[in-house]
């Protein structure tokens, strides 16, 4: 009888799993997503999605006025106008100057002294370096080394620096580099495409459209495809979790580890979870939710109006934990930034030069470096246990200090 009961329970469980998987398989939303993803994409075909080299090659090509794409200077001028208009750049040229530049004088170099993209004008004594990071992090003092090279090579030039990442995450160790995102790249390319679509060759237009399609599918967070994916996941979470569980992907495994830790300890830690992805796992203390700063964000970050969020950044080579001040037009944003700068013993590695317009990191620690040598189950288990241990230590130490420190300053200024 006991054997029959176990068999019956197992059969019911199998039937339930099969029902969930078939519900996902035949859902209208999945069909809509497949329609959105249907069709050949050249960048996906050549494996460019996660390749910084190929992204940089394409961007360097279309930015260069001397290349045979037929865009002339339209893409470069749109990029520079966006860069100096959208970001608070020290010693920036006027937008009128940017609009009146003779762009035939500009050159665009790839991998000059290992710098991903270098834009130079001898006539205007102008140089702008772009370092491109898709999923990897900065290597030691990489940005500072590049900056020193440029200062030595171009001592009398106006020098500008941009760090390009999927979400526009500020650099860890050098505040002179302006953080720009692939959302900015998308906006610039759409604007360029609108200007040139009727006059440029079909092949160039097709290439830009294909590139935009690729980054909207795989890199940008708040696209229609991204929203549809979230809807499908919400409706078919158990089926998708089962599929993910059997998918051999290290980044997904790390995401699962981080998100499950937060979900399991959500009540004990008294935290709110925010929209997360494979690369970014976000949360904030519930106590902060009582203050206006967590209710008045612009909504352009992590699908929330919260301004202060902790974020596990799940990179190919490391996991870091940061606290970020996101977009918000209120004065409390400046108050928090100044408070963090005055309390660097609590807000470790705060970027204190100047408050960035949208995202500013006020706390930054390493949770783990990912070893390429982790091949065996026992090594992976030890690696995951070390991650959990480091997170436990964070919540037992720095987290409490940061949480209480921000509650005090917000209470004093509410």
Automatic annotation (TrEMBL):
Superkingdom: Bacteria
Originating species: Colwellia marinimaniae
Name under which the protein is recorded: PD-(D/E)XK nuclease superfamily protein
């Amino acid at each position: 009888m006991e054997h029959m009961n176990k068999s019956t329970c197992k059969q019911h469980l199998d039937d339930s799993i099969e029902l969930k998987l078939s519900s996902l398989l035949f859902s209208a939303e999945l069909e809509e997503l497949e329609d959105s993803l249907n069709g050949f994409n050249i960048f996906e075909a050549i494996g460019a999605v996660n390749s910084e080299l190929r992204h940089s090659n394409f961007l360097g090509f279309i930015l260069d006025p001397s290349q045979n794409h037929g865009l002339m200077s339209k893409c470069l001028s749109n990029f520079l106008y966006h860069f100096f208009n959208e970001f608070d750049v020290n010693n920036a040229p006027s937008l009128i100057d940017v609009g009146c530049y003779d762009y035939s004088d500009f050159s665009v170099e790839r991998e000059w002294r290992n710098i991903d993209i270098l834009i130079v004008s001898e006539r205007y004594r102008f140089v702008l370096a772009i370092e491109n990071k898709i999923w990897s992090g900065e290597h030691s003092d990489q940005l500072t080394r590049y900056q020193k090279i440029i200062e030595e090579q171009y001592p009398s030039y106006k020098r500008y620096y941009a760090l390009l990442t999927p979400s526009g995450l500020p650099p860890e160790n050098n505040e002179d580099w302006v953080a720009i995102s692939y959302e900015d790249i998308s906006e610039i390319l759409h604007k360029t495409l609108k200007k040139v679509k009727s006059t440029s060759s079909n092949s160039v237009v097709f290439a830009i459209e294909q590139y935009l399609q690729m980054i909207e599918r795989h890199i940008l967070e708040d696209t229609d495809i991204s929203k549809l994916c979230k809807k499908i996941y919400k409706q078919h979470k158990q089926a998708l979790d089962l599929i993910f569980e059997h998918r051999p992907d290290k980044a997904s495994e790390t995401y699962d580890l981080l998100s499950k830790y937060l979900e399991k300890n959500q009540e004990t830690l008294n935290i709110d979870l925010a929209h997360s992805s494979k690369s970014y796992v976000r949360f904030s203390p519930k106590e902060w939710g009582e203050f206006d700063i967590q209710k008045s964000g612009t909504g352009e970050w992590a699908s929330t109006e919260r301004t202060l969020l902790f974020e596990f950044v799940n990179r190919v080579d490391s996991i870091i934990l940061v606290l970020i001040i996101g977009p918000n037009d209120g004065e409390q944003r400046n108050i928090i930034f100044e408070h963090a700068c005055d309390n660097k013993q609590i807000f470790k590695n705060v970027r204190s030069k100047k408050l960035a317009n949208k995202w500013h990191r006020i706390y930054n620690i390493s949770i783990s470096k990912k070893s390429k040598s982790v091949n065996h189950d026992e090594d992976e288990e030890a690696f995951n246990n070390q991650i959990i241990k480091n997170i436990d230590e964070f919540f037992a130490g720095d987290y409490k200090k940061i949480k209480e420190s921000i509650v005090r300053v917000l209470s004093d200024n509410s």
